Amino acid sequence: MVTKQVKRSKAAVKEALCGYLSISPWVLGFIVLTFIPILSTIYYSFTRWTMMDKPVWIGLENYIHMFTKEPLFYQSVKATALYVLMSLPVILIFGVLLSLLLNMKIKGMNFYRTLFYIPAVISGVSIAMLWTWLLQPDVGIVNSVLSFFGIQGPKWFWDPKWALPSVASMSLWKVGGSAVIYLAGLQNIPPQLYEAARIDGAGKLRIFFKITIPLLTPTLFFQLIIQMIEAFKVFTEAYVITKGGPLKATYFYLLYFYEEGFQHFNTGYASALILILVVIIMAMTMFVNYTSKRWVYYEGEDKAR
Amino acid sequence: MKTETTFEAMKRAHRRRQITTSVVTHSFMILLSVIFLLPIFWMFSTAIKSRWDIFLWPPVLFPEVPQWVNFRDVFTRVPMFRFIGNTFYLIVLKTIGELLAVPLIAYGFARLKFPGKGIFFMLVISTMMIPLQTKLIPLYSMYVKAGMIDTYWPLVLPAFSGTPFFIFLLIQYMKTMPRDLDDAAKIDGVGTFGILYRILLPLCIPALTIIVTYTFLWTWNEFLQPLIYLNSYEKFTIQMGLEMFKGIWSVEWNLLMAATLSTMTPVLVMYFFAQKHLIGGIASVGMKG
């Protein structure tokens, strides 16, 4: 008996060692490429540092400067917040609508799914180039078509009022990316529920609002968080198309961070900047998570995973 | 007899109604797809036009004389092949890294018991949520000290410790495989890592395909990191090259669109071959979180 137990514990120790060995590449990478850098970012945010010299501890000065003396900070927060507010509802609503279309049981649906997902695999730079051409004020096809109908099209990316909505509406084109995720959520809804409702005499609208939407809320919730984080991280569009202009209308937070950190090398200040963004994102995520108790429907078993 | 004919008639009416709905739905879906893909058609159309044709009104989808030469111009005026080669080089290195690291790590999480596993797993998941930019400044300064700026090391190294998304994907995949496989192999005297490499890994090929495909797509499309770590022109990746074109030919839209289209083509080809896996993979992770 005793020898057996010793054997078993020996085997357990061996298994544990193998376990640590197998995850060691990740642990090593986590320590060197994630943990230490994040701690360093926190430390640097309290220093004056230009990457070429030694960091000098200045306490909260970076943060005080940011909040009290830096109009660019507020401008970038404003541009980013407006972008999130404009693009997020559009992505969510059209994503769900598209997924409902793609969930129809007709022949060849896979083909349509493939087509609508295409913009989601194209690089940000390519998409930015494409839309810069489509939305050219004088020679772009969109304004040409509009003028054909007697409408004077706006200057899109080159008009301070229109630039932000233009960048936000570009995200509409990539909506196929999240639609396939809603689609998977829709297909996970047990068909018996629909049948039972139909037998009980529920109409199509009623089924949609009482079954489809509630059972889709876990997917919606998860997508809301993911898409929100993505929206806060908007960068490439502004970097390629507008460089933050016109009149800083699209001067997004990460563009500000990039310019401070990697062009002016105000790396101490940029570290403080990025931490504030992380705090904002975390606060927003927690807020969404807090509201989720009211609107996310958990079926109990596999949804809570 | 009479009942049968009414039944037949009803059946025919039903069939007719079905066909009508199907025609209506298909027309609607086709119309929507065309609208959705119009930007890409227009890009193609611009890419094969002469510099005068692109401003024609009314616009034509196909120019009378397609200027295929635009594509040649793109490849000769700027070292496109160089950028493509660089990007492929990166893709190969990163794929090797991911394929070495991810199965090993996922195997530990999916199959082996060790203290603290739950905490480590939580850390894997939470690193998926951390914006890359949070680490960028210290990483940059670290790579400066290591003399790795303007080399491919900063872009390749993370792959050798496994991308959290891939680790998660493969853990989920391995968990669907019956434990009996491991136990049978163990009885046959196969060692712990033998089980991974000889039994499980061959069965994981569908998941590994997803990992390779995503590594390709993401490396091809990546912009921010190459932009930060690479300085010299000869080392640029394809997306940086494309962004550079914009500066050079700011108004030659036909060439710009030809360049954009050329850089998109490998991704589109890859996508059409692997789309079923790709969409499935993204959807499974996107839902469970």
Describe, in plain words, how this protein is organized in 3D.
- The complex is a heterodimer of chains A (305) and B (289).
- Chain A is mostly helical and 305 residues long.
- Chain A has two domains: 2-44, no CATH class; 70-304, MetI-like fold, CATH 1.10.3720.10.
- Chain A has 13 helices and two strands.
- Chain A has helices spanning 2-44, 61-69, 71-102, 109-121, 124-134, 141-148, 163-173, 176-187, 191-199, 204-232, 236-242, 253-263, 267-295; strands spanning 47-48, 56-57.
- Chain A has a two-stranded antiparallel ribbon with strand order 1-2.
- In chain A, a hairpin with a 7-residue loop joins β1 and β2.
- Chain A is flat and about 70 Å long.
- Chain A starts with a helix and ends in a 10-residue tail after the last helix.
- Residues 301-305 of chain A have low confidence and may be disordered.
- With 289 residues, chain B is mostly helical.
- Chain B has two domains: 2-69, no CATH class; 77-288, Orthogonal Bundle (MetI-like fold).
- In chain B, 76% of the residues lie in helices and 0% in strands.
- The longest helix of chain B has 46 residues, at 2-47.
- At the A-B interface, α1, α4, α5, α6 and α8 of A face α1, α3, α4, α5 and α9 of B.
What is the helix tally of chain A? 13
Low-confidence segments of chain B: none
Radius of gyration of chain B: 26 Å
User: What's the rounded overall pLDDT mean of chain B?
Assistant: 88
* Straight-line N-to-C gap of chain B: 60 Å
Could you tell me the number of beta strands of chain A?
A: 2
Specify the overall morphology of chain B: flat
Provide keyphrases for this structure:
heterodimer, A: mainly alpha, MetI-like fold, B: 289 residues, mainly alpha, 2 domains, 13 helices
Summary, kept brief:
Chain A is mainly alpha-helical.
